[in-house]
Each structure stands twice: as structure tokens, then as C-alpha cells.
Amino acid sequence: MMGRQPTYHGDPVTLDIRPLDPYRADQETLDGYHLMRAAAWAADFPEDPPMTREAAVGRLRTPPVHEGPGRTWTGHLGGRLAGSARVSLPEAPNEGIAWVEVHVHPELRRRGFGTELLRSVLPAVLESGRGTVFGLPMKPDAAAASWVAGLGFDVTHSTVMQLLRTTEVPARGWEVPVPDGYRLVQWTGPTPEELVESYALARRAVNDAPQGRTSYRAPRWTADQIRTEDREVAEAGIEPWVAVAVEEATGQVAGMHVVHHYQHRPAHAFVQDTAVLAAHRGRGLGRAVKAGLMRQLLARRPDLELVFTTTAATNTHMIDINHALGYRTARTMNWVEIPTARLVERLAQPLDERSS
């Protein structure tokens, strides 16, 4: 494919791009990957804790299950690992999407390396037959924002990342009563079989949240899909924590909250889903399941420091609930996507590499 050749110190150079198997890579390669990712993380998210080696390598080996199977490549300049690219292929209902994640060391940006990495993984996207390419969500003013705009990516959704620092919330902050007519049920591990059907229905309510124009869709959960996710999460070594509000009169799940805990980030937890069925909204169930799960999680994981959650920027109701529980909004993130055919055309043309 055509396109401007990357440069270094004003001279044209070629990245040595290689596949990376995170289980077979030698320690020097993994160390180099960590140094690159940590530097990029510090530049892009200075408000977050530094990225440890354990977190960088662990994210390679244990990505979120919703991303689907993925492959990673690294780009080397001389003896230095300069950047990486990953292609992930989510499963139904997102079988038409390919996630492409590109990182470049901050000292090597604006030289065309990002575009070279993206160009090198495009054959894997084409091989997959996916018609839409998703980029890594980014801040509106991120270094990569003008780059992806120049490539033709569209912003189709905006979210806010909210952080909860557990030490800033007194224990009484989690003492939120469950509304009359409901009881709180919690578990970690497989979903209780007597709740799996109604739990799947409650998780479908996530689709009611604002989604902008994004092509990505949350699963239309079924009991079998819940069982499959339970198995995949266990096989990946991810620890799921779930709290649901069960309606006493029917024994059915009315609202739910799911958090994942990863071994490679022991002090952090990540909210996956929160939803309340339409017929049960307006009664405080969302706040009750969130608070109830935090009580259990902190009792079992007293070393937990941060909880991360992402909410649509227009979902002011959920944002306000999170604020009431002690979350603070850290940043806005834009989701970007482009039809694969259009990206092929853009990468075949000379590009302005200002931010890559």
C-alpha cells in the first residue's frame, strides 16, 4: 500500500513489525512492551496510576472477554520497541466489528509509526471479513484525535470515565437500603441456576442506555449466553462480582450490577454492567445494588483502591447515581469507527501524519 514512509530524525525508516505471543515472548520483549505502554499511558492518562509491568503484560494475556479473540504485533526501531497494534474480533452481536488498538511511544509520535502499524494489521482485518473498524476510545483532545480524524474515522459515541477511590468514601456511604419488596442477592462465580433466566433478562436492559451512533451493541443476553460468559470469565482467571435486586413477589431479578476483578490489577476493579428493568425504575434499585456490591467487595478485597466505570456522556441519571456513591468523573472518551473499505482507501493515499 502507498503512503508516506515513517521518519526518524528526518530520515526515512522502516519499522520491524513482528507478531507478539504474550505467553512465549522473552522477558526483554515484554519489558520493552511495558516501557512503551507505561510511557504512553503516563502521557495520555496522567490522572491515573502508573501502568505496572504486571498490568501491561496481564492486559495482553487477559483482555476483557467482550473483546473476543485477538492478535498483537509490535513495531521495533533498532533495538527499541516503538509501538504496538492489536486486532480483536468480538462475537455476536458485534461480529461485523474489528477493534484495532494502536499505541506509539510518546517520544516517537508524529512520525508515521502509528499509521505504519495500522497499515500492517489491515490484512488481518480484511481476512476477518469485518465491515467496520473501531479505534481505541480516546479523549477529544488526545494526540491521536486529529490522526484518526485525518484517516476518516467518525466519532459515534461519547462516554465518561468515572473513578471511585475507596479510601475517600466512609463505610456508611455504602449503607444504602434495598427498597421494600426487594431483596439483595450477591455472588461471585457462576450465576445461580434459579436466577439465570431473569438475570439474563435484566442484563438486556443495558441496551436501554444511550448509545449514540455507535455500531457496537450490548448482547441480547440469554441464559445460555450468561452460562458461556461465566465459563469464559472463569477460564480467563477473571473474578466476577455480581449483585442483583430480586423482587420478593415474583423471585425475578429486577436490577443488576457486575464488576470484574483481574489478577494483574489487584488494587483495581472494573464495572461491566448496571441496569434496572423499566418496570422497576425510579425506586433506587440501581444505587442499592451498586452499594451492596461495594460492601461485599471491600469486605473480601480490603486492598481495593480504585473502581472504574464508564457511562454514556448523556446518561446523566447514572452519572448522578455514581456521584452520590463517591465516584468522580475523570475524563470524557470518544468512540471512533470507520467502514473497513474506506480505511483501505485512506491508507492507500499519502496522509498527513501529524499525530501518528
TrEMBL record:
Which residue numbers delimit the N-acetyltransferase domain? 15-179, 199-350
Q: Which PROSITE patterns match?
A: GNAT
Which molecular-function annotations from GO does this UniProt entry contain? acyltransferase activity, transferring groups other than amino-acyl groups
Superkingdom of the source species: Bacteria
Read off the Gene3D superfamilies from this record: 3.40.630.30
Q: Keyword Chloroplast on this protein?
A: no
Q: What keywords tag this UniProt record?
A: Acyltransferase, Transferase
InterPro entries referenced in this protein's UniProt entry, alphabetically: Acyl_CoA_acyltransferase, Bact_Acetyltransf, GNAT_dom
Q: What is this protein called?
A: N-acetyltransferase domain-containing protein
Q: Which organism is it from?
A: Streptomyces tateyamensis
